[in-house]
Design brief:
Number of helices: 5
Number of domains: 1
Strand content: 5-15%
Largest sheet: 2 strands, antiparallel
Distance between the termini: 21 Å
CATH topology: Four Helix Bundle (Hemerythrin (Met), subunit A)
CATH superfamily: dinb family like domain
Strand order of the largest sheet: 1-2
Order of helices and strands: HHHHEEH
Radius of gyration: 16 Å
CATH architecture: Up-down Bundle
């Protein structure tokens, strides 16, 4: 499936892309970030809040982070304030990179079992599949944010993985 090197690369890609998204968000006013744009989580801020929520819930399964204090239905308001989100995101990304960097070569083997609030039951899946989902989920919702930012007149930057700066690899 995937190896720790994949997780390390995608953790850095995630950090790079989130930095670009935050910089693009900084060019918009608070009302533009909160405006309902018809996305699943409503606004740019709501979608970014959901992303931090999801990263936190997955990392609570992978690396014993504290679980979010709200469920999926409230994830768009998990971090409701732009300044709080703006200051929280880089540190969370650094923690994800540190986790990925610490994975041993066999660190993605085995099963992960957890209670899924979304499924309403206990779930067991290969850990490597869950980690691949984690990074795919980030990219999926960040793509939604990218589209909302572009529609709002912001310029979120290049997203191609092969163009990630060498400083991130």
């Amino acid at each position: 499936m995937i190896a720790p090197a994949y997780a390390r690369t995608l953790a850095r890609y995630n950090r790079w892309q989130n930095a670009q998204v935050l910089a693009a968000c900084d060019t918009l006013g608070p009302e533009a970030l909160r405006a309902d744009r018809g996305a699943f989580f409503g606004s740019i801020l709501g979608t970014l809040s959901h992303l931090i929520w999801a990263d936190t819930i997955w990392m609570s399964r992978f690396d014993d982070w504290d679980k979010p204090h709200v469920g999926l239905n409230e994830s768009a308001s998990f971090v409701p304030d732009w300044e709080a989100l703006r200051s929280l995101r880089p540190g969370e990304d650094d923690r994800i990179v540190a986790w990925a960097d610490a994975l041993p070569e066999d660190g993605l083997e085995g099963e992960l079992t957890w209670f899924s609030g979304a499924a309403g039951r206990e779930v067991s899946k290969p850990l490597a599949l869950c980690v691949a989902h984690f990074f795919n989920h980030q990219t999926h919702h960040r793509g939604q944010v990218h589209a909302m930012l572009t529609a709002a007149g912001a310029r979120p930057g290049v997203t191609d993985l092969f163009l990630m700066p060498d400083s991130e690899t």
